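Researcher: Here's a chain I'd like modeled. Treat it as a single chain, no partners, no ligands.
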Amino acid sequence: MIRVILPYHLRNLSGTGPEVTLEVAGPVTQRSVLDTLESRYPVLRGTVRDQVSKERRPFIRFFALKEDLSHESPDALLPEAVASGSEPFRVIGAIAGG
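Model: Modeled as a single isolated chain. Structure tokens:
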């Protein structure tokens, strides 16, 4: 089971708690986790990634093991601790301002 922590606004939109668990088939990558998340919670389609290009939306960041994975390839394997479910994959809503 993959653990995914969602930011507050996506929790409210999807009607979940702060953490969801997903059964991801195949290699555990950002793409496979997000595909599974969007499949299970269709209301999230287009909120984390663009619906057509599947590119990460601005101001959305991905973290695992205190590492920013936002600019990594979406097909790169996630750390084993995330794949085993011992550590979560975090989707963070970034804040900008001045």
